[in-house]
């Protein structure tokens, strides 16, 4: 888990926000990153490679090549750690800290998820299709509430 990039974990988080609240990784042959399956509250599973939905292959998720099941919160913590791994100290000469792009992305994603979780019942079912656009708006300074409202107003 520690070797996964923040970018990869961000894609996993987007799928989790859309399809389920837990994820499990499987080390598979022939790929640079593990496949993963997103699991919803009804125990239904959707399997992905780095970027694409795959036909479900439960054989990939058995045995010693499978990692434990992780929650959304655990993925967010892992994302924050992935940003810190390559960030160095982040301290400027004046003693202040600066936020790396990966750290900012992790914070935005955490804020986005918290807003989504708190407002899931009032948001359109297909809001997840616009997760990346919401992230961009938030990276440019918009609050989660305003970013969600803007996307809903323009697209849904």
* Count of separate structural domains: 1
**Computed structural class:** alpha+beta
Query: How many strand units?
Result: 5
- The proportion of residues forming helix, as a percent range, comes to 40-55%
End-to-end Cα distance, whole Å, is 35 Å
Number of helices: 5
Order of helices and strands: HEEEEEHHHH
What's the story with the biggest beta sheet?
A: 5 strands, antiparallel
Strand content: 5-15%
Give start-end ranges of low-pLDDT stretches: 85-98
Q: Which strand order spans the largest sheet, edge to edge or round the barrel?
A: 4-3-2-1-5
Mean pLDDT: 78
The Cα radius of gyration reads 17 Å
Shape designation:
globular
Give a concise summary:
This protein has 156 residues and is an alpha+beta fold. Helices cover 44% and strands 14% of the residues.
Q: Can you describe this structure?
A:
By secondary structure, the chain is α+β, with helices and mostly antiparallel strands. It contains 5 helices and 5 strands; from the N terminus they run H-E-E-E-E-E-H-H-H-H. It has one domain. It has helices at residues 6-19, 72-85, 101-119, 131-139, 144-155; strands spanning 22-26, 35-39, 45-48, 53-54, 66-71. Strands 4-3-2-1-5 form a 5-stranded antiparallel beta sheet. Strand 3 (45-48) and strand 4 (53-54) form a beta hairpin. It is globular and about 45 Å long. The termini are far apart. The model is unreliable at 85-98 (pLDDT under 50).
